[in-house]
């Protein structure tokens, strides 16, 4: 784990809450839906491979979305999302394991559990197809990765730098997310993905995270090597009624690239 003294106060607060969260009892066993396969299938179908995020709120957004998470999830899939991400962190993001359970029962695409998971026991809160493991916050990434796989989870291992990418690859990560958001300042820079992805081997599934708001952003990340894009705020903007069109707009970015380039 990196020195967390440089983290933004909001992130420090999230980590403190994660450390204090009671561990659930028992252990889960999952038969996961294939996340890389779903991204590949979307690309083969001519869609930008999106992991659309059900996010009630966050420290970097204003207000709270009160739409039913299941309705949001179905709207995202109807719009063309290849997979979903569901926040289960309760104190700062308004999520819960129960929300993820309901969403996963309602859709047939892979569902990622997005949370700040610090110990193997925390993996057992709910069944999901994939879990997020953040390199910066884990003292024993290989152990956490092994614990996730023992339960059947696919693991999206999140990095923000080339050094963290090397750590993830050395631990055996096969799905890597590059977060464009700097957790020290909470600023976003799409250059981050381009820098880090240049060092990634071809056989690793790469997902660009944070800061993707427009079809132009989506095309930029895809051109830099992203196999999938994790998008939350830009899809949730406008609430339930706007979600399907928000997804379609980003999911069709590759289809409209030539037309847009001609117009410019």
From TrEMBL:
Keyword Amino-acid biosynthesis applies: yes
Positions of region (Disordered): 18-48
Biased composition (Low complexity): 23-47
Reaction equations catalysed: 1-(2-carboxyphenylamino)-1-deoxy-D-ribulose 5-phosphate + H(+) = (1S,2R)-1-C-(indol-3-yl)glycerol 3-phosphate + CO2 + H2O
A family per Pfam: IGPS
Positions of the Indole-3-glycerol phosphate synthase domain: 29-238
Gene Ontology process terms (BP): L-tryptophan biosynthetic process
Annotated metabolic or biological route of this protein: Amino-acid biosynthesis; L-tryptophan biosynthesis; L-tryptophan from chorismate: step 4/5
EC number: 4.1.1.48
Top enzyme class: lyase
Entry keyword Signal: no
Keyword annotations: Amino-acid biosynthesis, Aromatic amino acid biosynthesis, Decarboxylase, Lyase, Tryptophan biosynthesis
UniProt protein name: Indole-3-glycerol phosphate synthase
Record organism: Halomarina halobia
């Amino acid at each position: 784990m990196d020195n967390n003294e440089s983290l933004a106060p909001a992130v420090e607060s999230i980590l403190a809450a994660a450390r204090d969260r009671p561990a659930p009892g028992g252990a889960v066993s999952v038969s996961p839906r294939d996340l890389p396969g779903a991204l590949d299938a979307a690309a083969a179908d001519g869609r930008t491979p999106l992991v659309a995020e059900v996010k009630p709120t966050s420290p970097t957004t204003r207000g709270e979305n009160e739409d039913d998470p299941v309705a949001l999830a179905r709207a995202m899939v109807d719009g063309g999302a290849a997979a979903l991400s569901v926040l289960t962190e309760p104190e700062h993001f308004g999520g819960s394991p129960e929300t993820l359970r309901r969403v996963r029962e309602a859709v047939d695409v892979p569902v990622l559990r997005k949370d700040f998971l610090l110990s193997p026991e925390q993996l057992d809160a709910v069944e999901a197809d994939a879990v997020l493991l953040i390199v910066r916050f884990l003292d024993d990434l290989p152990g956490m990765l092994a614990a996730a796989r023992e339960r059947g989870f696919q693991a999206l291992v999140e990095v923000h730098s080339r050094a963290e990418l090397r750590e993830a690859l050395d631990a055996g990560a096969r799905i890597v997310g590059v977060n464009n958001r700097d957790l020290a300042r909470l600023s976003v820079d799409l250059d981050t993905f381009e820098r880090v992805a240049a060092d990634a081997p071809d056989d690793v599934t790469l997902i660009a995270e944070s800061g993707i708001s427009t079809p132009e952003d989506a095309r930029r990340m895809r051109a830099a090597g992203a196999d999938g894009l994790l998008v939350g705020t830009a899809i949730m903007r406008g609430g339930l009624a706007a979600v399907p069109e928000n997804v379609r707009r980003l999911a069709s970015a590759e289809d409209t690239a030539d037309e847009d380039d001609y117009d410019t």
